[in-house]
Amino acid sequence: MSEESRSYAARHPLSALQAELSRPRMRARFDAALRSWSQHDPALAEIADHAGLVEVLSSRDYPRQDEVLFTLLRRAATLGDEGIVASKIVVNAMIPAVPGIVGRVIRASRAALATGGPRRGVTGAGVSAAEENADVQAMVVGHLWEQVRCYPLRRPHHVAINLVRETQRAALRELGVNEGQPAAEVVSIDDDAFHAEVTQRPAEPDASVEVLELLAWAVEQKRLDEQAAAILIARYFGHDIGRDGVATDRQIAALLGVSQPTATRRRQRALAQLVEAAWEFPGLGHWREG
């Protein structure tokens, strides 16, 4: 790896991982492995290449997704090249969930600091701005790899949810936020929350670091009214989370004490305010460069 490549990977660990796992040579290895395994594993019988795997994981047949992911995780638990390749296939499938985990971990760490919790992080002062984009991403990816390699094979159901939950817990522990702290409550996950997070990217931005930065800037600059800010915070970073990784209009309606159609209209207005503010956001150019 060149010095330039190492520098890019350090600044953008998730993008660098996606690029690595998308290389034609890597995809060819995925195809060859899946083609071989499909001849031996009934769960993979109809998956002869990476495209077939993507098709299954893009469906809403969640029991089928569990069956396929669990079969891959059994192979990921083995030693040697086969285990490495299987692990990379699963990590690649889980990449869409990483930004949401990063955003929730940052939010919980900030909440812990605000309530006098432990001050952890690379600097020992909690999650700093410099850590958000690179260090926390790298930390989450590292914990995801560990969870894939060491997945408890006694848990064949809710596989994607379990991987997300345990990766998030491990990252929070590293930052000194344990489940007994009130700060951990802001990122609690119910059993059905993340079936779709692995395979579906919402049309709107997800609860990523970028959205967190934009929303914080828009509130600080008073580019959002109080109602819009409350709705967007509840949608992307609130306790209630729907299948797409964000709060549904029904959940927002219950929180605000209004009807669902009213909540939908208010959310749409809030998003329009945020989109308009985004054009003046100082970080816009950085996102385009990334």
Q: Your description of this structure?
A:
There is one protein chain. The chain is mostly helical. It has helices at 3-11, 13-21, 24-37, 50-57, 62-76, 81-94, 98-114, 129-133, 135-149, 159-174, 209-220, 226-237, 249-256, 260-278, 284-289. Helix 12 packs across helix 14 (260-278). The protein is elongated, with a radius of gyration of 20 Å. The protein starts with a helix and ends with a helix. The model is unreliable at 117-131, 181-196, 199-207 and 285-290 (pLDDT under 50).
Q: Quaternary arrangement of the chains shown?
A: single chain
The biggest beta sheet reads: none
The number of E-state strands comes to 0
Q: Helicity range of the residues?
A: 55-70%
Shape: elongated
Distance between the termini: 19 Å
Order of helices and strands: HHHHHHHHHHHHHHH
Q: Give me the secondary-structure category.
A: mainly alpha
Instruction: Give start-end ranges of low-pLDDT stretches.
Output: 117-131, 181-196, 199-207, 285-290
What number is the mean pLDDT?
Answer: 76
What percentage of the residues does DSSP assign to strands (E)?
under 5%
Structure annotation, total helices:
15
Rg over C-alpha atoms, rounded to the nearest angstrom: 20 Å
